[in-house]
From TrEMBL:
<dbReference type="GO" id="GO:0005886">
    <property type="term" value="C:plasma membrane"/>
</dbReference>
<keyword id="KW-0732">Signal</keyword>
<feature type="domain" description="Cadherin">
    <location>
        <begin position="546"/>
        <end position="664"/>
    </location>
</feature>
<dbReference type="Pfam" id="PF00028">
    <property type="entry name" value="Cadherin"/>
</dbReference>
<dbReference type="InterPro" id="IPR020894">
    <property type="entry name" value="Cadherin_CS"/>
</dbReference>
<dbReference type="Pfam" id="PF08266">
    <property type="entry name" value="Cadherin_2"/>
</dbReference>
<keyword id="KW-0677">Repeat</keyword>
<dbReference type="InterPro" id="IPR050174">
    <property type="entry name" value="Protocadherin/Cadherin-CA"/>
</dbReference>
<dbReference type="InterPro" id="IPR013164">
    <property type="entry name" value="Cadherin_N"/>
</dbReference>
<keyword id="KW-0325">Glycoprotein</keyword>
<feature type="domain" description="Cadherin">
    <location>
        <begin position="323"/>
        <end position="427"/>
    </location>
</feature>
<keyword id="KW-1003">Cell membrane</keyword>
<protein>
    <recommendedName>
        <fullName>Protocadherin gamma-C3</fullName>
    </recommendedName>
</protein>
<keyword id="KW-0472">Membrane</keyword>
<keyword id="KW-0812">Transmembrane</keyword>
<feature type="domain" description="Cadherin">
    <location>
        <begin position="428"/>
        <end position="539"/>
    </location>
</feature>
<keyword id="KW-0130">Cell adhesion</keyword>
Amino acid sequence: AQIRYTIPEELTRGAFVGNIAKDLGTDVAKLAAANLQVLSDSDSQYFSVNVNTGVIMVSERIDREQLCGQNPRCFLHLKLAIENPVEFYRIEVEILDINDNPPEFPSAEVSLRIYELASLGARFPIQPAQDPDVGTNTLQTYHLSANENFNLNVKARTDGGKFPELVLERALDRELRAVHHLVLTAEDGGYPPRSSKMHITIQVLDANDNHPVFDRPSYGARLVENSPLGTLVVKLNATDVDEGPNGDIRYSLSSHNSAALRQIFAIDEQTGEIRVQGKLDFEEATVYEIEVEAKDMGSPTMEEHCSVVVEIIDVNDNAPEVIVTSFSSSLSEDAPLGTVVAVIHVRDKDSGEQGKVQCHVSPDLPFQLRKDFEHQYSLLTSTYLDRERIAFYNVTVSASDLGSPPLSHHTILPVALADVNDNPPQFEQASYEVLVAENNPVGSVLVTVSAVDPDSEQNSRLSYSILQVSGTDPGLDPTRYLSIHPTSGRVSAKLPFDYEQTTYLQFHVEVSDGGSPALRNRTLVHVFIADQNDNAPQVHFPRAGEDSAAQFRISPSIYPPALITKVVAMDADSGRNAWLSYHLVEATDPGLFSVALRSGEIRIVRALQENDASAHELLVVVRDGGEPPLSTAVTLVVLVEEKGPEALQGSEAQVIDSEGLPTITLYLIISLVLISTVSLVGLAALVMRYL
């Protein structure tokens, strides 16, 4: 939106300009809450806004002549910025001229020397008065005091300037009157009008009675800006019908020309050639009007004046300018589409198509430009941002004009993305499998779980905890056996494991980040307990006291390989640690009995003889397959007695049924084989996973 106000110059500080709240049709309280800001295109802050009333006031003295010079219209431009949401309003304040400056002559007195034979109608330029006001307030007319010889002519230039000239209306006669005193008054059109006076003293000279004459009253030329030094502008030609020194002409730039113009153009006094000696810049001036005078060498000299109008042609010699008026270098990665990142003002000093500017950013970036006003753009987000993919952008804003060839300017805006907690932690493995030997030391590290979070700082700070798997035996609470370091993820044993009580344990490890709210993830940990040989074999048959031996009776007529009895033992360990072997380590007659290595059956090896002892003591050792092996010993006493056929059954029911023993052994062997197979398969799977 654009609002225009009009005020006169030289208003006092605090003077009312306009009510922005009323003109925008909004409430004053809303303006105050929206963080209203005033942005000026000029270096000085001429206006301010009272956010409590919405009134725009003058904050500095405004001199229209200082701001805009002789431009007929003078404007100051403001931009009002409002946040939540971001809105811009353009305000244009037109500064009206007041008649605060009178016309001023360069000097209060001037002297002219005019030859008495000067032709009627001869013109004598007078240095004009200058009035910095514009419009009707500037210089409007000149008045010449009453006299008999001179009349006043006012010459109007193309730029609006007015140059007074004295015109000789009646021939001069030095003998009659040698000096004339005139008063020239310059008056502007203000109300009331202002004026100033110049006293002109004219001395009438004798002799040289012809002045130089140009072949045309004015000259015109066109030059391209930035023309090289020495470029010919125009060649003037003036003639004087006098002879000798009175007809010898010298050319020069009139004193009417400004000092700046004299630095740009130079004239050859002999040839009348005007050449470029300074820099021509279309952006500083589009037209130059050069006042040239031709003087003869008579005494007194006579002169003639002409104007040379030089039009400057613009070329594309100014690259666009990019001015960042508002910029946020940090942007949240979850910023919505269309978020304003920067406000940019562009300008080009060239004119026409060469001064029109186009802006763009790379289409590969998640940003776009929106044109707000003729020379203002806003940089917006065009797609959703992800700091974990790209955390920093160098946004290059390119501005190019429509010249041929076009000129361009590039400005880089660094935009860093601020992190939000939008990524849950991720474990390096979906599950972990751990093999732990029983009787492990307390505090030993079983496994280290590890998770990563692509977020940054607090959002990526992870903490670990142990949770029981839903539906598992409450008696196998993992926190009873295990603990986890909250930051490193190291899982340590709080108690030693006992394979004979627990062979397998599973639990969840949960990781949570430090965001708000926190994001979580879980992984499953399988703990396999490996058996150690920590249990010695236990003899279940025959049972004997600590200091006694089991007794068995056999008949003297027993024949080999008759079964005497069977030692039955069990081992609480598993696998190889429970694989038992039986050994006869001591015997009264070592060659009479034997023990089966795996079954523990004790048999007679040869027939009894009369000289054999009647009682035989056997020491049987049961040894497991662990490393190192553990063993248990049992002592048996075999008595040779004549009892008849029943002796083979043993006395007092101490000899076990020979048919039942092979069945028990078979069950034991099958159980050991199954346990060993399961353990080996589990161990092999674990090894293959780690490989």
